[in-house]
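Why do we bother with holo predictions? Because pocket geometry can differ from the apo form. Keep that in mind while you read this record for nicotinamide-adenine-dinucleotide.
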Amino acid sequence: MIKVAIVGCGTMGSTHARGYLNIKNAKVTAVCDLREEKGKAAAELLGAKYYKSFDEMLKEDIDMIDICLPTYMHKEFSLKAMEMGKHVFCEKPIALSVEDAEEIVNKAKEKNLKFSVGHVVRFFPAYMKAVDVIKEGKIGTPKLIRTTRNGAYPGWSWQNWYADYKLSGGPLLDLIIHDIDWIINNFGDVERVYAKSFNGKVERQDHCLVTLKMKNGAIVHVEGSWAYPDGAIFGTTFEIIGTKGQIESDSRNSSPVKKYTNNGSYSISLDTPLFPEEEPYTAEIQEFINAITEDRQPKITGEEAIKAIKVSLAAIESSKTGESVEL
Ligand SMILES: NC(=O)c1ccc[n+]([C@@H]2O[C@H](COP(=O)([O-])OP(=O)(O)OC[C@H]3O[C@@H](n4cnc5c(N)ncnc54)[C@H](O)[C@@H]3O)[C@@H](O)[C@H]2O)c1
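The structure, written out:
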């Protein structure tokens, strides 16, 4: 049984917490959050001990730390956990700079620890199915890939940390990294990046458009939005055009359960019924736990997470200079 501790029990920490309830070979024994109400809610759900201090929690007998903190804290907390000999699963993006990300990956190697990053799109059924169809050769060679990831500004966050792009990277790093990781993983390396974004000039509202020229000649368009009104349904799409056919998916049309809830404010969301172990956030954590127990490399490696931020950081540079960036 792998003993796990979660640090950061906000939006993603509580999502991961629910995932662990369906994992049989791991148990969350401790959770940590500066905000007592968030930490204690997760502790109660999981039957775990609540800590306000990460350093105190690290003294516990724990095998793995699951880091769900704001992005600007990923490096500091990953390194601390690894120094204490803990395996680390860290939310995406791995870090805000390539140097920081490399420090994390090198520390994991030096300490012979498992490390992975929450590039969860690789575990979403529609995206997995598309990959299968492509690998079976059903649409020939992919030449054009278009993805969108659109919703409202993440206004839920602790201290509104997403609004400061020096802490979050904005949507070019924080949001569309999901699509970028999936694209690199399935269509190969990127040669050139061109991007447009408001870059935080408009408060709580942004939109980004990125064009990628892939080394294999394919063209990719990635769109990401924090421009929708609060409460808007979050949606993702992809379209892959090959030499013999095409695949498309729209999460707003393909999620059969529509939920209307009023917990203080009215909201509408979409659900796809899945077996508990297929739920993407559960599946990504299960894969990492299995990498520990089987002593093998996790499906998502630190090096892959670095490749993804290199493209996002190039997109940020391009959106600021107006020039394309060669990788
Ligand atoms: N995979 C996904 O789909 C997805 C979605 C959203 C966010 N994320 C990523 O997850 C990470 C967390 O984002 P979030 O939206 O959950 O943020 P959040 O603001 O909702 O939660 C962060 C939590 O960390 C706590 N915290 C801050 N400093 C702390 C400290 N020193 N010690 C203990 N707790 C501390 C805060 O109290 C808060 O509860 C980010 O890297 C973000 O990019 C991933």
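The radius of gyration is 19 Å.
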